[in-house]
Specification:
- The structure is a single chain.
- The chain is an alpha+beta fold.
- The chain has two domains: about 1-40; about 45-125, K homology (KH) domain (GMP Synthetase, Chain A, domain 3), CATH 3.30.300.
- It is built from three helices and five strands, in the order βββαββαα.
- It has helices at about 45-65, 100-110, 115-120; strands at about 10, 20, 25-30, 75-80, 90-95.
- The strands form two sheets. The chain has a three-stranded antiparallel sheet, with no helix packed on it. Strands 4-5 form a two-stranded antiparallel sheet.
- A hairpin with a 6-residue loop joins strand 1 and strand 2 (about 20).
- About 5% of the residues are buried.
Length: about 130
């Protein structure tokens, strides 16, 4: 078993606000003002989308470097949605500054489905919680 990532959040005095530490990095988490927060940082589902799009961008760049392909500048966006029936889904969009060939477009779509975070989200993840 290998630990892949670690993060810790410390509560702040303001309701819903916290400071996340991961390695030598830190960022704020909070809820939007419409939910009683102060919108000082990313909300939990924003962090989830950020993990997915970060992994997508890195995986595509690694693939391009490995294959000697020039993808050029691109962006990845994600929206997390839910409906009244309890269904949840993420819409991910990849946009390239310069058009790619049809063949490369299809390869990009295939790679997006194989990124590590995508694969984690597509399967069940066991979450064990302990009080320490």
């Amino acid at each position: 078993m290998a630990m892949i990532a670690n993060a810790k959040v410390q509560t702040l005095p303001e309701p819903w606000s916290g400071e996340i530490h991961s390695g030598k990095h830190q960022l704020m988490t909070d809820k939007p003002e419409s939910f009683g927060g102060q919108d000082k940082g990313l909300a939990p589902y924003d962090l989830l989308c950020s993990a997915l799009i970060s992994c997508t961008m890195i995986t595509l760049r690694m693939y391009a470097q490995h294959k000697g392909i020039e993808l050029g500048e691109f962006t990845v966006e994600a929206d997390f949605s839910a409906n009244k029936e309890g269904q949840e889904w993420i819409d991910r969009r990849v946009s390239f500054l310069h058009p790619l060939s049809d063949e490369l477009n299809q390869k990009v779509l295939d790679i997006c489905q194989k990124t590590p975070v995508t694969k984690t989200l597509l399967r069940s993840v066991e979450i064990n919680t302990t009080l320490v």
